[in-house]
């Protein structure tokens, strides 16, 4: 009885074309991150569960790949790279020069229901600045993210920017309690998707918020205008709520940074209803949204000044964000935004028969020593026609044919698989032809 062989649900195999697109996207981010002074970090796949438990909220904990190892230790596959980074920073606090700017591009695991665009293993692409309370670091990250998305070829996108302190202030202004903060924010975050009336209904009926509080909250979120106009209106409305004014002042600092570097206004906006990372963000929060094609959010980001301090007993300010590599790769692949091929081989060296194997081997070796990607046909006794069909199916552009006549004259036949043209050349001429 044969066993059905298939991968686990929510996991994927990556063959050549997908690998190449992923590498392209990752390399774009690496170049931009390093251009802004971020340095690489990698942390283990397996971490103590204690660094995640109680930090990310009940909903996140339902998705943990958590188990006892053979030594009876409570461990888990890392849920995100940020928390793992916080552990690494806390553990090496006396070895790191602060402020510390790091990027990290690694796999994480979440036991969620597989669906389109959601997988149980995926790659997070993070960058963070640790040790600076200055929100100009937040602004720099947004500028950097915009540059990365532009370099990937996206045009119609923007950073939606808000501040957790402002959200706190609005809840306080409306008369809601602290325990109602997260439920209210979760509903408010749905405003652009379901509209004001459905959010109001959800706040009252599902979240148990008093009608007058819900109305007061939605009255503020109904304010309209461009970024400058909205900031002015919010400051006027919330002038007696210090935490809200603090958040608005931080937002003004960010927008002043953008003005100073001449950042195009189409790439960012003040979006007061977005709520990201409610369990840990403490100041500015933002997402990068691809508008064309209704792709939606491809990154969640913000300031988290309290997390690292929990590991070491003192406050360590931090800010940064995470891009969803898988989502970006899927969009880039579907839209054919970059030209790529699953084939990386330039030339196949055929084998006439076993007596001429060494001749073919030496040709292949010379090609490789000249940095030409070369396959020496892997089966010695296959007929030439089969070898040519193999090259054609693999999309290999050139085939070297070398038999008794070619060996006697110290030449090869070079076949162009696209045109069918064959030329008799020296090995030096072959190298020159394939390289051009």
TrEMBL record:
Carries keyword Thylakoid?
A: no
- Taxonomically, which superkingdom? Bacteria
Q: What is its EC number?
A: 6.1.1.21
Provide the primary localization: cytoplasm
Its localization reads: Cytoplasm
Q: Which PROSITE patterns match?
A: AA_TRNA_LIGASE_II
One Gene Ontology molecular-function label: histidine-tRNA ligase activity
Protein residues bound to L-histidine: 110, 124, 128, 276, 280-281
Name the keywords, alphabetized.
Aminoacyl-tRNA synthetase, ATP-binding, Cytoplasm, Ligase, Nucleotide-binding, Protein biosynthesis
PANTHER family reported in the protein's UniProt record: HISTIDINE--TRNA LIGASE (PTHR11476:SF7), HISTIDYL-TRNA SYNTHETASE (PTHR11476)
**What name appears for this protein in its UniProt entry?**
Histidine--tRNA ligase
Q: What is the lineage of its organism?
A: Bacteria, Candidatus Roizmaniibacteriota
